[in-house]
Amino acid sequence: MPVKIRLTRMGKKKQPSYRVVVVDSRKPRDGAYIEQIGRYDPRAEPSLVEIDNERALDWLQKGAQPTERAKKLLEISGAWTRFAIDRGDIHTVGTAKPEPKPEAVIEAVPEPVVAETIAEEPVAEESAAEETVEEEAADESADETKADE
Asked: So where are the chain's domains?
């Protein structure tokens, strides 16, 4: 039995509201349905979309095919996104566990700590040497100003 998720029109003339239903695809638009999973009111501002995501997801997993309009409503409610994630069409970040690194690779990496400490020491000496040169220049300029007075 081919099952569809589609809209059934309700409401008065020129005032439509819809039910989101699961129905045999061979039935007429407003005919008998298997289950009502939500409702849609396009006249409300903003449009009202109420869908039971758990039931919709259950029917989608069973193979029910939504119509174009029903699919858009399922996307708005979030049921279609959850279905796509469960099916594997959408990959989410942070859900997969990182693979552990092999121990052989970890042992083969040299330790950069020793190289960093050696590289940092001359930099410290150079900055200390620059400070002493600046202090001497400041002392000489102070001596010159005293001599001029």
From this structure: 3-87, 103-148
CATH code of the region 3-87: 3.30.1320.10
Q: Which residues, 6+ apart, have CB-to-CB distance to 55 below 8 Å? A: 35, 37
Tokens coding 98: 């990182």
Query: What b-and-e string marks burial along 105-116, b requiring 16 or more CB atoms within 10 Å of the CB?
Result: eeeeeeeeeeee
Q: Which of 42-51, 86-95, 104-113, 133-142 has the lowest mean pLDDT?
A: 104-113
- pLDDT-wise least confident of 39-48, 49-58, 139-148: 139-148
pLDDT greater than 90 at residue 7: yes
In the numeric block, which tokens belong to residue 14?
């020129």
Distances (CA, A) of 119 to 1, 112, 122, 123: 75, 11, 6, 7
State the pTM of this model. Answer: 0.58
